[in-house]
Amino acid sequence: MSQISPQSSPPSGDARISTFRRLRRLSHILDNAIPIPGTSYRIGIDPIIGLLPGGGDFLGTAVSAYIVLEAARMGVTRETLVQMVWNIIVDTLSGTVPVLGDLVDVTWKANTKNIVLLEEHLKIPPSSSRKKVDWLFLALLFGVLLLVVVGVAAISVMLLRWLFSAITG
Fold it and tell me: Domain of 60?
């Protein structure tokens, strides 16, 4: 049984293309899977699961973070990883605003933006993109993302408590 070491290098050739295709399909499902009748616009399940109170935005953020993790394993640059996490943070923060946040979530499409960034990276010749995953940097990025998600959850709980106490007196 083989194990991947923490300092493993990114997958090569066919494995990278296979991973990219899988991530592109996931992004499509999250951001563009459902056509809106009578228009050329499409939405995905990300804004729909974001409507679920309590865990919808967290679930969408977790799946988006998976795309970033796989991109890191494929050897994308730190700058690209920061851009990808920023896209997720904007999506997560905007999704917390009732109604308006859902409209932003439908239009922002963080996963599609992240797949475009990954696709741009993959066009780099393989010899210059064969980097090891910087797990410490990736952990730091995910730590920031987790802090944003926890902060949003804490603010939501405080607002709900305040609203409940205002209603019940």
Answer: 13-168
